[in-house]
Amino acid sequence: LQAEIEQLRDDLHAAERERDALAARNSALSLAVDQKDGSSALVGAKLAGIRGLVAEHIRIEPGFEAAIAAALGSLADAVLADTADSAFDALAESAAKDFGRVEVVVADGTAPAAKKVDGVRAAADVVEAPGGVLGLLAGVYVADDLDAARAAYRSIGDATFVTRQGDVLTRFVLRGGSGAKRSRVELVAERDAAATKLATVTTQIERTKFALAEKRGALETAKTGAAAALAALREYDAALAAQSEQLSRFRIQLEAAQAEWERLSSAVEVSAEAVREAEVVVEKAKSDRAAFESAPKPMLDASARDGVLAEVEAARAAELELRIQLETIRERVRAERARAESLAQQLIAEREAAEEQARLTVIRQRQVAAANQVIAALPAVLDSVDRSVSEARLRLAARESERSAQNEELATLRREEVSLRERLFAISENVHGLEMQIYEKKLHLSTLLERAGEELGLVEDVLVAEYGPEVPVPVDTRPEALEGQELEDASSASATVPFVRIEQQARLAAAERKLAQLGRVNPLALEEFDALEQRHKFLTEQLTDLTNTRKDLLTIIEEIDEKMQDIFGSAFEDTKAAFNQVFPILFPGGTGSIHLTDPENMLTTGIEVTVKPAGKKIERLSLLSGGERSLAAVALLIAIFKARPSPFYIMDEVEAALDDANLGRLLTIFEDLRQTSQLIVITHQKRTMEIADALYGVSMRADGISAVVGQRVNTEKAS
To answer: Deepest of 120, 177, 471, 507, by most Cβ within 10 A of its Cβ?
Structure first.
């Protein structure tokens, strides 16, 4: 079981290493698939109707990835659109945002049925993809090798044949060879395969962990069972010793019962003999009595009467004693008989017990015989056991020392294992990073080659031959270009220097900065300049007009401010004078005034009201009671009304907080004010209503509808 556990542990470690390697490979392939280009940028724009890349939406039968990648070519990296309208929108978005050159495949479509060709398979049969992609693969056949493709190529010349190695055969072009760049389709297929294998290995790891846990549980169960068996063996030995001890006790009880039975048997015999002797004595006494009674009675001799009576009394006493002895003997006989019966029953029970004990004794004797045999053989066994124990102790000591050494070695190995695992993890991470760098370099190289092919029309061999690191680099010898450079021979306009990467990178950076400073070439710059010049002229004129208008507005504002200051100053003085007239009426004996908080700045100043009722030292309006504050506010309002009269005033319950005395003073003010203006007062005070010319109220009619009721008071008084 321990060996199985070790094997499972090794398998688990191997599976974990494989899982880590597959995870690193899957991550590297995912990074390789997720390379940034125009198609990826277009997919990242998340336009409506764009599914993603073509390579992400096809499933290829294993073994045909290179063939399908060669058949699709650059379309494997194209964008997949749902409809043609979505494809047009995608092209417009790419052109608007300058994503670069992109290709869009329309997924909506129906692929024609492929013809059956001997020796090859239709490409659409090994692919699960949208209809548009299957339409691209229509007329494409996959052959196992180049010979099979050649045979089919000769039979049907208007079709496209690809091999599993990636060779492409068309009617006019044959493309193949080794060292080709891996397509995104192959990378996606390899990534999916790695992900599938990673899932399988992860599942296998979980199963192995479960099996290892089961084996460990079984090992613990076996250890527990062994301990239980050892405990049961010890219990059996203890039970056997207890049985032997109980057998000895039963044997002693049997011997004691047999001795008691013999003693009781002898006692019963003695009692029976005594009973027989008593019966003989009783019979003799009966015969003597009968003889005495049958004998003739002698004549009465009075002189011998006393002696006879004495004899009779003695005989009676003897008879009584004999009777007592007889009853005693009889009682003893009954007791002995009862005892004999009980002893007989006890004897029967003891015989049965003895028989059972004998049966058990026979069994135990057999066990004792076996034990005696074991005991007889025990010395030799003990000697052998002693020798074995001695040898085992020696071996145990040796094993203990070996175990200690092995434990130390195991601890050392475990520490080494931990360090090796750490190194393995670091190396795995390093390898993973190197693989990612390799993939990035490959992708970068392929991207550069594609850019060179698209922008410069140069292939890799021409680039290396004409622009490789061993080719001298031409240098511009113009004075403005030679600043900061030293050349041995600057007389020639086509001087060259050896290729030094650092210097050329510095030249490239300087050229890119200058190019960035120049910006893009704009062929419409003159037209835009004219338009901007006209707009600048227009805006300059508008700015001049705004400046002049601002000056005029500032002048008007200054005039208005001066006039407002004059008007406000005169209005404040009039209001102050009116307040000094009204306040003594409302507050008899009190003093009050209003003044400006900032007299120097009339436009931003505030007005502070100072009120001092009679008998109070309070000057601040905020420290007055509610009625006093209401009356002071009314005084200020009336002062404003008198300073600048208005045709009418509306007041809403201004006297609600006033008592009768203050209300009378306020009504005096109202009477004075009504001489020059009309007053509309909303009130609940009866005295206020009494001085009114007309009353208007709201009443509820019987039908529940409210109605306005008006009444002329002065007219009714006059009538």
So the answer is: 120
